Amino acid sequence: MTDILIAEATKQGLWAILYITLYFYTLREGRRQQTISATREDNLRAEASVLRKEGIEREAKLTDFINNMAEQFERLATQYEIMAADVQEIRIDLERKVNRTELK
User: Where are the transmembrane segments (predicted)?
Assistant: First the structure.
């Protein structure tokens, strides 16, 4: 079909040849740009998929870290409560001893 168009264009003159040549160039360039765009789009999709997976992994690690920190904080709070109770007992014992020594 291209050969027929070129043969007819040569009969019509120089401008027809230039028009047909530009037409075929435009078609070929459009296909080439489509291929390039499709390849670029596939690459971007693959990269987005990798980044999404990395984000999910990072989120899981941060969630684990936060959960571990919460557990450690709970342990520290429990230890603090125990220490506060012990200190209170020591104060009471000291006050009793001081009161006994003052009474004597």
Answer: 12-27
Give the CA angle between residues 18, 13, 7 to the nearest 5°: 80
**Phi first, then psi: what are they for 11, rounded to 5°?**
-70, -30
Q: Which residue has the tokens 């450690």?
A: 72
Per-residue burial over 52-88, b if 16 or more Cβ lie within 10 Å, else e, is: eeeeeeeeeeeeeeeeeeeeeeeeeeeeeeeeeeeee
Q: What is the radius of gyration, based on Cα positions, of the chain?
A: 42
Q: Taking each helix axis as running N to C, give the angle between helix 14-103 and helix 2-12, from 0 to 180 degrees, rounded to the nearest 10.
A: 130
Instruction: For residue 7, give both structure tokens.
Output: 């043969």
Going by C-alpha positions, the residue among 35, 37, 8, 43 that lies closest to residue 23 is 8
pLDDT tens profile 27-58: 999 999 999 999 999 999 999 999 999 999 99
